[in-house]
Write a structure and sequence with these properties.
The structure is a single chain. The protein is an all-beta fold. 0% of the residues lie in helices and 61% in strands. Strand 5 and strand 6 form a beta hairpin. The chain is elongated and about 55 Å long.
Length: 122
């Protein structure tokens, strides 16, 4: 199973970027997908998540600016980031909980994608 994140780049403050994360490989279904970010000198922090029943959760710092969506069947999650602020600059990582079959057993597994850099100029 692999997660491929993309969409990062350089944007001016107030601008918009859309990140995507696509799951591929031998999984049965996605339980949830989330985005985290890590700024220089700071710990990785939760940004937003989307569950299989379409429930969303956003960090207070990004509420009403960041928005999640997904495709059906679910392989990709997009995060549209509006009104970006310099404080949003970070490496963004996607994370997914998936149902994966290993032989005769089926169980949840967690995966991380590679990061994608978001830079916001003031």
């Amino acid at each position: 199973v692999q997660l491929q994140a993309s969409g990062g780049g350089l944007v001016q403050a107030g601008g918009t970027l859309t990140l995507s994360c696509t799951a591929s490989g031998n999984f049965i279904s996605i339980r949830s997908m989330a985005w985290y970010r890590e700024a220089p000198g700071k710990q990785r922090e939760f940004v937003a998540s989307l569950s299989s029943d379409s429930l969303t959760n956003y960090a207070d710092s990004v509420k009403d600016r960041f928005f999640l969506s997904r495709d059906t069947p679910w392989n990709t999650v997009w995060m549209r980031m509006d009104n970006l602020e310099p404080e949003d600059a970070a490496v963004y990582y996607c994370n997914a909980d998936m149902w994966v079959r290993r032989g005769s057993s089926l169980g949840p597994e967690n995966y991380w994608g590679q990061g994608t850099q978001v830079t916001v100029s003031s």
